[in-house]
Amino acid sequence: GAGVSQSPSNKVTEKGKDVELRCDPISGHTALYWYRQSLGQGLEFLIYFQGNSAPDKSGLPSDRFSAERTGGSVSTLTIQRTQQEDSAVYLCASLTGHSTDTQYFGPGTRLTVL
Amino acid sequence: SQQGEEDPQALSIQEGENATMNCSYKTSINNLQWYRQNSGRGLVHLILIRSNEREKHSGRLRVTLDTSKKSSSLLITASRAADTASYFCATSEGAQKLVFGQGTRLTINP
Q1: pLDDT tens, A44-62?
Q2: Among A104, B6, B24, B44, who pairs with B101 as Cys (CB 3.0-4.6 Å)?
Q3: How far is B44 from chain A (nearest CA, A)?
Q4: β pairing state of B104-109 and B10-14
Q5: Is there a contact between B40 and A33 if contact means CB atoms under 8 Å apart?
Q6: Which of B5, B48, B86, B96 to mutate to test the interface with A (most CBs of A within 10 A)?
Q7: pLDDT at B2
């Protein structure tokens, strides 16, 4: 079946604009993660959705960042009033939520804030 | 907060040689995973080792885990040019939340 998909693959925006990044997880996967990766760095956890439970937002860097997951499937990460330091690759991953702990990653969205 | 720390940060070897990367972590874990990333985009899962396992093999990959030292190693044998990538360890805490290290950039020279 299809893997995790993300759109857009690249996004260039001006400082102060809002952006929305989309993640389509693997069908049937109940858990979904967002990570951020700055150039040459490791992955920084942002937010985690598991089924109908309240999301774990502990990694969101500021209140300009928010995410939602509609119908337990597609997720949107929104960054308001973007800043240059928001430039990074944003990665989404999903997993079954069962005993298999492997996360399946999407190709990422490269965000550039000018 | 950062959990896994990879060592070395960068490694360059000749094709055919073995590559060893190390990962250290700080807290108790459920499992430890290794991922590969090409060209700074999506990560590919390589291998998972659970906290009660000491060694695991998958093809040319060998992973060890020493929970007493809170460390793991990834060995790639008979390296190939296609192995050139960044390698990350990630530890699982509680509800499958993964915490990643900074990664090791591996370059295989032909």
Answers
A1: 899 999 888 889 899 999 9
A2: B6
A3: 7
A4: parallel
A5: no
A6: B96
A7: 43
